[in-house]
Amino acid sequence: MIYVVEDDGTIRELITATLQSAGYEMQAFEDGNALFSCADFAKAELYLLDIMLPDMDGYQILQKLKKSTDAPVIFLTAKGEEVDKATGLHLGADDYITKPFGVLEFLARVKAVMRRYEKTSSGKILEFGALKIDTDSKSVTVNGEKIKFSYKEFELLLYLAKNRNTVLSREQILSAVWGYDFEGETRTVDIHIKTIRQKIGDHAENPLYIETIRGYGYKFI
Fold this sequence. Notes:
- The chain is α/β, with parallel strands linked by helices.
- The protein has eight helices and twelve strands.
- The chain has helices spanning about 10-20, 30-35, 60-65, 80-90, 105-120, 150-160, 170-180, 185-200; strands at about 1-5, 25-30, 45-50, 75, 95-100, 125-130, 130-135, 140, 145, 170, 210-215, 215-220.
- Helix 3 links the parallel strand 3 and strand 4 (about 75).
């Protein structure tokens, strides 16, 4: 099930027709209040959120959703400035599609996010000292304390951990974790790495887990 929050009726109808024609179950809402009035608001497998909304904006909706669900979120908005993208990604969004968009690209991005979400589980617990990554429940603990991760943060940490002691470029990480060309916006990786480090108590100057390879990328150690 996909939930869409979009206040423009024409775009909402286009998204509805596109998703349904591709075989997805979905439900559309005109604003955040309508979404959170739904008893099953936290049950979706994917959320598509506009940012410019009449009641609460997409950022606020995302923050509220992350308290109840780890499902992936895609921003679908006319706000295409880098600062807007950085804000959304920092808050835990998994993708960012700028209007106007092509239907084929839109569907490809939706399918890519949902496919990666479904494939993450492999039923193993990876342990690195105080850090434990449970690939079955998609959870992360540090010293026994569960740390709240967005889906994309978890997927990035897992990718790094599975490639321990391997130097990975930002472009490699983008391709593996996001699954398509971000048009050179490798800062996306840096934003997510910074958030992950803060959550697991890692430090860029004296890293416990993620080492920065200056001018190139990162390595899980």
